[in-house]
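Predict structure. Chain length: 399.
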Amino acid sequence: MRFDPWSPEFVAHPYGVYAELREQSPVSYYQPTDQWLVARYSDVNALLRDRRLGRSYLHLATHEQMGREPEPGFQEPFWRVIRAGMLDVEPPVHTRLRRLVSKAFTPRMVENLRPRVREIVKGLVGDFVAKGGGDLISEVAEPLPVTVIAEMLGIPQADRHLLRPWSADICGMYEPNPSVQAQRTAVRACEEFGDYLRELAAARRDRPGDDLISALAAVVDEGDRLTGDELVGTCVLLLNAGHEATVNVTGNGWWSLFRNPAELARLRADHSLIPSAVEEMMRWDTPLQMFERWVLEDITVCGVDIPKGSEVALLFGSANRDPAVFTDPDAFDVGRADNPHISFGAGIHFCLGAPLARVELVESFGALLRAAPAMDLIEEPRWNPGYVIRGLESLKVRV
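Prediction complete.
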C-alpha cells in the first residue's frame, strides 16, 4: 500500500505506510497533490517552528509571484472569513490577532469552565447510560464540545444545531484536492456562518453579555481592537478548532482502548491515568493527520532541496509514531510518561485551544469510565472518508 489520502484502506491503516516513508523517503514529492511529504518527527517539529515557512504567503507575494494559480473567484467569501482568523495568516497580522484573542481567551477562563464542562458531561453521559448506550460519537462526543463552545460564544440554544454542519462543511476545504462541490459547500457554509456571527456580534456590541463574543468585541490593547471581519473569523476558527479535534479524539480514543483491552482494563482500574491516556490517544491515532505549510524561501530538508513556492505536508500521524522520539511507538500505553506528541502543532501556530480540549477530554473520559465501567463495542466502526481530519463515522456501544 502507498500513501493515498483518497483510499479508504489507507485512511483506515496509514501507519505502515508512514513507517516506510520515515525509513526510505522521509522527504518525498507527492505529485497528485503537488506537495512535499515530511514524515519524521524531527523535521516536522523543526518546520513548524521555521519562519521560512508559513500558513500563507500572501503577506509577501501574490499567487503569481509564488508560481501558484490564483484562487477561483467563487472561493472569495470562504477566504475572506478564514483569513480574518489567526490560523491562516502570518506575522505581523498573526501576532496582533493572537495577542488580542489571548486577552479574552485566557487559561484562567478555560479552567473556570471546568465545573460547567463537568456538568454538561454528567448530563450527556447520564442520558447515554440510562438508555443502555448507542452511538458514542453523535450522543456524547459531538454534543459536548459544541455545547461548550456555543455557551462560550453565547450562541442561543435554538441555533446550536447549525454549528456542527457548518463546521464539517468548512473543514471539507482542507482535504487534499477537494472537489468543486466540496469547495462550493465550504463557501456557502462560510457565508451563512459569517452572516450569522456578524448579526450576533452587532447585537453583543450594543448589549454585551457574559460571553466570548462580547469579550472579543470589547477587548482593546493599546488602542487596538478586532475588526468586524476579524471577530467573525476568530469565532469561526474557535468553533472549528474548538470541537473537531475533541470529537475525533473521543471517538478515535475509545476505539484505541477497545483495540487494546489490556490498556482499557488498566485505565478502568486506575483513573489517575486518564490525563496521560488522553495524551496517548492524541499521539497514537491523532485526528489531525496532516498540516500544510508554504515554503517562503528555498529550504533543504533531510538533504532534499525544496524550492520557494512549494507546499509541504507535515505528517503529524507519522511524526507521532517516530521511533527516534517515542519508545515502542506502535504500542498504545495509557501511562506513557514521555510523550511530546505534536498533535496540537508547535511554534507560533500552536493550538490556542489546547487547554480547553484537554479539560473536555479528561472530564468526558472520566465520566464514562465511572458511569459505564463495562462499556463495550457493538460493532467495528468505519472511518469517515476524510484523511486530513480523520475520525469515525460512529461508535456503537452498550453500557
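Summary: The chain has one domain: 8-398.
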